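Researcher: Please translate sequence to structure tokens.
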Amino acid sequence: MIHDSKLLYDSSAPPHDPTAYRRIIGKLLYLTNTRPDISFAVQQLSQFMQHPTIHHYEAAMRIVRYIKGAPAQGLFFPTESSLQLKAFSDSD
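Model: Translation complete:
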């Protein structure tokens, strides 16, 4: 994601189909489990689920092109591994 880009809601920008945008962002959110490098960009784009513009859709497609261009990056969890992930969360 371009660090200087401002993805604010712009009422003058043409709206995009919210259903397609939500579908892409939902898939990208699921993918952040194994691709933590896209977490920040997907989090920024997920703030515009209600009223996405064409600029938000283009930014989401830029992330998809990044993933397609670098398929070997990310975390791999083999099924034969004895690795067990344990976590603790204090909700207070």
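Researcher: Any highlights?
Model: The helical segments are 18-31, 39-45, 54-69.
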